[in-house]
Design a protein that fits this description.
The chain is an alpha+beta fold. The protein is built from three helices and eight strands. The chain is elongated.
């Protein structure tokens, strides 16, 4: 089932909500369906049928009143690191599979490195063994990308069975 992108009143993306939740927010007057160039941002193939009419489900809605809410990063998990790094070794660029993927601490734990978004990367077993207990500089193995905390929408595309609505690209940067 498709979801709807929920925007704050200033058009900043907040998160995704179910179509039912989006419909209720619009129906109760707390949000509006976004107008993108003279056309409402809806899922054209998905409708709610009432006795009087058929209503297309919203794809992008905007809250009418601002909500002050800070985004919290997702819980740190191995699978989230692999997804953030696109299942690619951050040292050699090799595509990783479930059997070849490991997590490497950029600053080794034995040298005070923490297990965090900014210190862990996806790595193949070969590179992880080669780097061993060294920093990337000491091992002469530069990182392909600098590890960072993921954005709130980074995992959406990688989730199985999710659809991407063309209007979302105005608010969310895709890889």
């Amino acid at each position: 089932m498709s979801k709807a992108l929920l925007l704050n009143s200033d058009y900043s993306p907040m998160h995704f909500v179910s179509n039912v939740r989006a419909f209720l927010l619009v129906h109760k007057g707390r949000a509006e369906i976004l107008d993108t160039g003279g056309k409402l941002s809806t899922w054209s193939q998905q409708v709610i049928n009432t006795t009087k009419e058929s209503i297309a489900l919203p794809a992008t809605i905007r809250l009418l009143n601002r909500v002050n809410r800070k985004w919290q990063p997702p819980r740190f998990r191995k699978s989230a690191i692999y997804t953030r790094d696109n299942w690619c070794c951050q040292y050699c660029g090799m595509d990783l599979g479930k059997n070849s993927a490991t997590i490497d601490h950029v600053q080794p734990r034995s040298r005070g490195g923490k297990t965090s978004w900014k210190n862990c990367v996806a790595s193949c077993k070969f590179c992880n063994r080669k780097k061993a207990n060294k920093t990337p500089h000491e091992a002469n193995m530069p990182l392909l990308t600098i590890p960072a905390e993921p954005s709130p929408f980074q995992f959406w595309e990688n989730a199985r069975g999710k659809e991407w609505h063309e209007d979302w690209s105005m608010f969310i940067k895709r890889k």
